[in-house]
Amino acid sequence: MSSLLKNDSLDQLHEDLARANMAPTWKYVSEFVAREPRVSYRPWLWRWDDIIPLLMRAGDLITPERGAERRSMEHVNPDLTPYYSTSHSIATAFQLVRAGERAPAHRHMAGAIRFAARSQGGAVYTKVQGERLMMEENDLLLTPAHAWHEHANETPDDIIWLDALDFPLVNLLQASVFEPGEGEVCPSRPDNFSRQQLGMYRPTGWGKYPESQPALRYPWVEMHQALQDARSAEGSLFDGVILEYVNPINSGPTLPTLSCRAQLLKAGTKTKAHRSTSSTVYFVIGGEGVCVINGIEFHWGRGDVFVVPTWAWHEHHCKGSDAFLFSITDQPVLEVLGMMREQTYEPNDGHQKITSKFNP
C-alpha cells in the first residue's frame, strides 16, 4: 500500500476519478461557481415589419384543416436556437388566428400569457377553463399552468397576439406535460366569471375561486388609465412610470414564474442604467425609442420585440412623443429562490457609453 502511495501522482488521481465518474472540485470549481452570472446569450430585437409578412404568409399556408395545433412563430434568440427561446427562461411568439378560425383545446405544464398586439375587438377570445376571455387590442390574458384553453375568432378580421410562455424553464426542470383536448374539456363558465369572483363584489352564494391561479383578462383601457394617472409621479429611475399586473388571489406576480408589467416612457425620458439577475422581454405597444443594452443601441418602434438578458446593463431613451412598453420578466422565480440581485450603473451619471448600434 505504501509503495502505491509513493508512486501516486495527481494526474493519476484525476484519471482514476474520471473512470469513477467523479470530478475533482479543486480542478473544476471555476467552471460551476462564478464571481458573477455567466450569461449564454445576447440581447436581440425582432422588428414587427420584418416578422409580420412571414406570419401572414403562414396564414395562407398553415391552416386548421392541415392539422396545425397553433399558427405561431417563435422569437428565437440566435444563441438559444436549440431551445427555441427568447431568453433562457422565457419564450415568446406571435400567433395569428384568421377570421372565423378556431384553435382546438389543449393544456400544458407551461404557464402562458397572451397580449393582443393587433385586434379589431368583437368576438375574439381565448377560452380558459371554460371561461371566455375577450381580446381587445393590448389586453393581457392569462393561461395558468395546466389550464385548458382554446382560441376563437368569430369576427371578419384577423387577430395577432404575443404569446409568452415559461417552457424553457419547464423543460430545464424536465417537467413538461402536454394534453390535447377533445369535445368540451370542462364545464362552461359565464363571461366575466373570474373578475366577478375575484373582485370587490360578487354574487351572493358563490364559493371560493376554484383554481389556485386565476384565468383573467386585464383590459388595456384600465392599465392605460392607471399609467396616465401615475404620469405625474416621479416613477422609477430605471424604468419611468411602470406598473405590474397583480394576481388578485395573492397580490403576487401575474403568474408564479412570470411577472408582466406596462410602462410609460414620457417624451424626453432618459432613464439610468441598471442590471439584475432576471431577464426581461419587451413588446412595444406604441411610440419610438432606444434601449441601450451593454453599450449597444437598440432602436425600437411599435410592434417590435426585444430581450434584455440576465445581468445586462440597460437604460431607456424616449426622445419623441410618449411611448408605452409591455414586458415579461422571470423575476418571480429569482425572488422565490433568493437569487434576485440588482446593481446600479455608477459611471457617467448612470448612463452607458454607446459603442455601437444593433444590426441583426
The proportion of residues forming helix, as a percent range, comes to 10-25%
Low-confidence stretches: none
Q: Termini distance?
A: 63 Å
Mean of all residue-level pLDDT scores: 94
Proportion of residues in extended strands: 25-35%
Number of helices: 9
Count every beta strand, where a strand is a DSSP E run of 2 or more residues: 24
List the helices and strands and how they pair.
Blueprint: H1 2-6, H2 10-19, H3 25-32, E1 44-46, H4 48-61, E2 72-74, E3 91-97, E4 102-108, E5 112-118, E6 124-128, E7 131-134, E8 140-143, E9 149-153, E10 159-165, H5 167-172, E11 178-180, H6 193-198, E12 217-218, H7 220-229, E13 241-244, E14 259-265, E15 269-270, E16 274-276, E17 280-286, E18 289-293, E19 296-300, E20 305-308, E21 314-318, E22 323-329, H8 331-336, E23 342-344, H9 347-350, E24 356-357
Parallel strand pairs: 19-24
Antiparallel strand pairs: 1-20, 2-3, 3-10, 4-9, 4-11, 5-8, 5-10, 6-7, 6-9, 8-12, 13-14, 14-22, 15-21, 16-23, 17-20, 17-22, 18-19, 18-21
Task: Kindly list the characteristics that best describe this protein.
six-stranded antiparallel beta sheet; 19% helix; oxidoreductase; 360 residues; globular; alpha+beta; dioxygenase
Structure description:
19% of the residues lie in helices and 31% in strands. The chain is α+β, with helices and mostly antiparallel strands and 360 residues long. The strands form five sheets. It has a six-stranded antiparallel sheet with strand order 1-20-17-22-14-13. A six-stranded antiparallel sheet has the order 2-3-10-5-8-12. The longest helix has 14 residues, at 48-61. It starts with a helix and ends with a strand.
